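Quick one: structure for this chain?
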Amino acid sequence: MRVLTADNIGDYLRERGWIHSPARVEPLGGGVSNVVFRIITPERTFVLKQSRPQLRTQAAWFSDVDRVYREQEVMQMLHPLLSAPTVPEVLFVDHANYVFAMSHAPTGSRNWKEMLLAGEVDLELGERVGAMLGRIHEKTAAYPHLVKPFRDHRVFVQLRVDPFYRRVQERHPDLATPIEHLIDAMLVRKRALCHGDFSPKNILVHDQGFTLVDYETACYGDPAMDLGFFLSHIMLKAVRRHPQRETFFELTRAFWRGYTRKARFAPMDTLEADGLRHFAVCALARIDGTSPVDYLPEEPKRELVRRLSRGILLAGPRLVPAGTMTVFGREVPVVNRCPPTWEDVLLVYDEECRSLDN
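Got it. Here's what it folds into:
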C-alpha cells in the first residue's frame, strides 16, 4: 500500500489522472481510523480517504484496511435512495491502495457535534436527522437485496463490538451477561442496514440540509444499535451541559418523532426497548471503553453516566420506581412499564443531573 501524505498526494492524484492542475491539500481531522484530505483544485473541491490498520487512540486498536471498500460500496448503494447532498458521491476508487475520493460537503458546512457542544440545539434538525435514519432503515429492510452484500460484520466487530461492548464487559464484569445477550442478538439479526457510527460528529450541517459521512462500520444487521449509539451521544452532551439538559431531552424527542414517521419495518416498542439497551452500553463505552469522549473529564459527570447506564442494564423491566418524580420543576406520576421507555430514561437522567446543579 502506498501511504499517502500531504506531501505526496498531489503527485499520486496526477499519476492516476484524477487531477490535471495544481492542487492545495489540507489534512482533515476529527476521526481516528483513516487519513482524510481535502483536495482543492481550480475545477472542484473533493475529499480523499485512505484507511489505516491502527487507529489513533491511546489504547491499541486495529482493523482491516479493506474496510474502506465497505464504506465506498455502502455510499454508492445509499446515494440514490436519499436526497442530495445527504450522502457524498463516490468519484474515484483505488482498491490497491485502499483509497477512494468523494464529493465535498457544501461550502460553509459545520460539524453538528461542535454545534451541540457549544449549546446550539436545533430541534427541527434533530427531527430531520431522525427521519433520515428512519428512511435508511425502512428502505433497506423493505429491499434486503440492497444490503445482503454487507452481511459480513467483521469490521463492525472490530470497530464496534470489541472496543465498545466487549471492552465494557471487561471493565464491568457484573454486566457481562446482559451485554453478551445483546451482542448475540445484534450479530444474529439481519433487519436492515446498520450504519454503526451514526453520531453528530458524522453529520455536517449546511444551507442545503446536512450530509452524513463515515460508513465503514455499516453492515446488514440490527438497526436498533444505530438508535442507541446516536442517543448516547446526545445524552452525553446533556450531561456535559447539564443546566441545558431539558433542551437536549427535547432534541431526543424530536429525533424519535422523525424516526417513527419513516420507520415501519418493526414494532416501534421493540425497537425502542432494544435501542435503550444499546444506548446504555454505548454511553458507558464512551466513558470506560477504548475510545472515551474527551469532553467529560470531570469524574462526577463520568460517574453519573456509569450509574445510569449500569442501572438500565441491570434493571431488567424495572427502570424507575412507582410514585412521583420531580421533572423540570413539577411533580409527575411515574408508572412502571415493561419494557421501560425512552421517557423513563429522561426521567431518571433529569433526577440524577440535579446532583450536578448544586
